[in-house]
Amino acid sequence: MKLNLPLLKTLCSIPGTSGNESAVTDFLLKYIRKAQKTWEVKPELYYGDDFQDSLVLKFGKPRTAVFAHMDTVGFTVRYQNQLVPVGGPDGEDGAKLVGRDSKGEIECELEYDKEHHALYRFGRVIDRGTPLSYKVNFRDSKQAIESAYLDDRLGIYVALEVASKLADGIIVFSCWEEHGGGGVPFLAKFIYEKWGVRQALISDITWVSDGVDHGKGVVISLRDRNIPRRAFVDRIIGVADKHKVDYQLEVEGTGSSDGGELQRSPYPFDWCFVGAPHHHPHTPNEKVYKKDIQSMIQLYHHLMKEL
């Protein structure tokens, strides 16, 4: 399976910290309107003021939805040279940050004081409230991809690959996931009340850990801070076994995703996190193996046909 790395690189490069996702939405709308000419089914698109910056694609007679969040971690400029984290960025001292304010383009450096408060180093004062994100250095090797913001632009990329061959289903591009959520509850309400859909797959990126490694396949998460219904997870494992897709099972006690918001919603959603593992989360050097991306795409195609 050949990966569309130019598309993934472009997705990673679009600024979109939590609450500032509009540029990602605009790109997706332009991409989808062009790409859907070659897709097996042309989706209905739902977006606009009622959806804020979120975007919903509906194909055929949907049974299952794929959720991928558009936002990233980063920083908001405070006062003087202070920065407030957006989500949980973990960049090292000296990491390059980029943005734009009323005075023009910005490329500055991240630094920390003795109390580990985040600051910026730049030749002028940056307008307060300016969003800053990591400068993207997209690296493609034979085995892996390294870049800022594979979390969750890789999840978006996989969702678009799935959309190209999707007959029946929903793709949801959500906002605010990295900073505590907020977009998924009204999206869950919309797809449940309009189409009765209450199954969801979370197309996101998880961690390499002592039980999950690079190159061993897509991760099916049995739990993180939240616990999905085991009967639904077992169905997903059954599909992976049936089609001999390489996968790993994850058990964690921390971390969350759009699945947590679905579980807390007043709607009876079954959900499961299904995604590739990565190293160096929330840094400019997130790393994912191509083999794991390929198995992720493969499994999603099967799941959307059979769940």
Protein described:
With 307 residues, this protein is α/β, with parallel strands linked by helices. It has two domains: 5-72 and 139-306, 3-Layer(aba) Sandwich (Aminopeptidase); 74-134, Beta Barrel (Elongation Factor Tu (Ef-tu), domain 3). Helix content is 28%, strand content 28%. The chain contains seven helices and 19 strands. The protein has helices spanning 5-13, 22-35, 150-163, 184-195, 230-242, 258-264, 290-306, and strands spanning 44-46, 55-59, 64-69, 74-77, 83-86, 96-101, 104-112, 118-121, 131-134, 139-140, 144-147, 169-174, 199-202, 206-207, 218-223, 247-251, 270-275, 277-278, 286-289. The strands form four sheets. Strands 1-2-12-3-13-17-15-16 form an eight-stranded mixed β-sheet, sandwiched between helices. Strands 5-4-9-6-7-8 form a six-stranded antiparallel β-sheet, with no helix packed on it. Helix 1 (5-13) crosses helix 3. The longest helix has 17 residues, at 290-306. The radius of gyration is 19 Å and the shape is globular. The chain starts with a helix and ends with a helix. The mean pLDDT is 97.
Question: Which helices and strands appear, and what pairs or packs with what?
Answer:
Elements: H1 5-13, H2 22-35, E1 44-46, E2 55-59, E3 64-69, E4 74-77, E5 83-86, E6 96-101, E7 104-112, E8 118-121, E9 131-134, E10 139-140, E11 144-147, H3 150-163, E12 169-174, H4 184-195, E13 199-202, E14 206-207, E15 218-223, H5 230-242, E16 247-251, H6 258-264, E17 270-275, E18 277-278, E19 286-289, H7 290-306
Parallel strand pairs: 3-12, 3-13, 13-17, 14-18, 15-16
Antiparallel strand pairs: 1-2, 2-12, 4-5, 4-9, 6-7, 6-9, 7-8, 10-11, 11-19, 15-17
Helix pairs in contact: 1-3, 3-7
